[in-house]
Design a protein that fits this description.
Layout: E1 3-4, H1 9-24, H2 30-45, H3 51-68, H4 73-88, H5 92-104, H6 111-127, H7 131-142, H8 150-168, E2 179-181, E3 187-189, E4 197-203, H9 208-224, E5 229-235, H10 240-249, E6 256-258, H11 266-270, E7 275-276, E8 278-282, E9 288-291, H12 296-307
Parallel strand pairs: 4-5, 5-6
Antiparallel strand pairs: 1-7, 2-3, 4-8, 8-9
Helix pairs in contact: 1-2, 1-4, 2-3, 3-4, 4-5, 4-6, 5-6, 6-7, 6-8, 7-8, 9-12
Length: about 300
């Protein structure tokens, strides 16, 4: 899982369960009563289990409920919760499936509920690089005006800007400019790396998934650096001491760009980064060839691009 910008997957679980419980409060059917018991049980177990175990419990419990009561209004609410959870957990195709089912389910839906569902759909389409579909959904939400919670409208407007950035850095496109003064006080400019294979690595010392992946990045750098592999790190840290300590302790020898602006980093915004670690692997010609390759796949991708002439 990535280190999300604004919420963890656990927070998405909680938000989904709050929505579930609210939906069941006034209903009087057998399905609604069962649904209320189920959501109470799930909320009681939140925080008492490891995230992957809780995720599995939610999948099974809500999925089984949907099978038992497929045509109920509560099944629609269960689809909505699963859609939000899958979206935050990095399973966009499943998220789309469940949000679509929610929108088709019986029962009235408020403008806010429809806007939230469309926002999750758009986020999932972005993850699948279906930018036209995402833009259409986001424009519908952003254009809802006073009918929808202004926070949802604001979020949709922000995502529209990110979609434009992501279009510019899709696979096969020329890499956007990356330049600045490194932590070593030296000038860094991606354009000067033409002829090299370059990993642009967005990370932060506070990001647990980044720390978990970093040993793999270091191994790959040490193995292939002399063969033409370079890394430009872009830190989203705001604490300079924490940043300095991490790169020193882990002997990260490649240049790092740090401006202390966190998520407001101009380079991060130019690349549409909303979660870290985020990586863009650039070939010798300066084109983006891979995104977010990690573990053994990073080594394989670097080796493949280095073999190209």
């Amino acid at each position: 899982m990535q280190g999300m910008r604004s919420r963890s997957v656990f927070a998405a679980f909680a938000a989904g369960l709050v929505a579930l419980a609210a939906a069941a409060v006034f209903a009087e059917t057998d399905a609604a009563r069962e649904f209320k018991r189920l959501t109470d049980e799930l909320r009681a177990k939140q925080g008492a289990m490891a995230s992957h175990e809780y995720f599995g419990l939610l999948e099974r419990s809500l999925g089984d409920f949907i099978k038992r009561h497929p045509k109920s209004q509560e099944a629609g609410e269960a689809h909505f919760a699963l859609g939000r959870i899958y979206s935050s957990a990095g399973s966009p195709a499943k998220a789309i499936e469940h949000i679509d089912a929610y929108l088709k389910a019986p029962g009235e839906k408020s403008p806010d509920q429809r806007a939230q569902a469309k926002f999750v759909l758009a986020s999932s389409q972005i993850a699948l690089e279906r930018y036209d579909e995402a833009e259409k959904l986001l424009r519908e939400v952003a254009g809802a005006g006073l009918a929808v919670d202004p926070r949802i409208v604001e979020a949709a407007s922000g995502e529209l800007s990110r979609v434009e950035a992501l279009r510019r850095v899709k696979i096969g496109a020329p890499a956007a400019g990356v330049s600045g003064t490194s932590h070593q006080g030296k000038r860094v400019d991606l354009a000067k790396y033409r002829g090299k294979v370059v990993l642009i690595d967005f990370w932060a010392a506070w990001c647990a998934p980044c720390r978990m992946e970093m040993p793999n990045v270091i191994r790959t750098y040490n193995e292939f650096h002399k063969k033409g592999f370079e890394i430009i790190g872009v830190s989203l840290d705001e604490n300079r001491t924490q940043f300095d300590n991490f790169i020193r302790e882990n002997k990260m020898e490649w240049p790092q760009l740090f401006d202390g602006k966190g998520w407001q980093s101009g380079i991060a915004r130019a690349y549409g980064v909303s979660a870290i670690p985020a990586t863009f692997l650039v070939d010798r010609a300066g084109n983006i060839r891979y995104k977010n390759v990690r573990g053994p796949k990073l080594r394989e991708a670097v080796e493949k691009l280095l073999a190209e002439k």
